[in-house]
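Q: My labmate handed me this sequence with no annotations at all. I'd like to see what the chain might look like in three dimensions before we decide whether it's worth expressing. Could you predict it?
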Amino acid sequence: MNYQPEYKYIPPFQYHFLTRIYDFILILAGFGGKFRQKIVNAVEIKDGYKVLDVGCGTGVLLEALKKKYPTVSATGIDPDQGALDLAAKRLGPDVNLIKSFAEALPFENEAFDVVFSSLAFHHMPTEIKEKAINEIYRMLKPNGKLALVDFGT
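A: Here is what I predict for the chain of 153 residues:
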């Protein structure tokens, strides 16, 4: 992917070396297994659906998704290669992981039935959030569903 963002990407907790403890910190903050399960349960998913996680990080939401719906085709995108490396170890080859920014998704129009994004949008500047939402809606199939979970503005 040749896309270069208009802004400097800053990883969660400001430093790449903290990526390894990201999941542990989220659990301590109350964003652990029950939180992820609520997100997965929020959308009706059927066998064979194509599902995307925008800002998948280390893959914890995709892991919960594949446990509940093993027949879905799951893809995760994240701009942080270190997080994607951890996700690949967690998820194995059944999940497609791509280094990408949310505002420049490398997919054809109407490629996914469901898109999830949790705790990623608060990292983006407002104008990038708008571009990311437009990209997500571009790749959602007609009647597709978006589950966007975050805090802040």
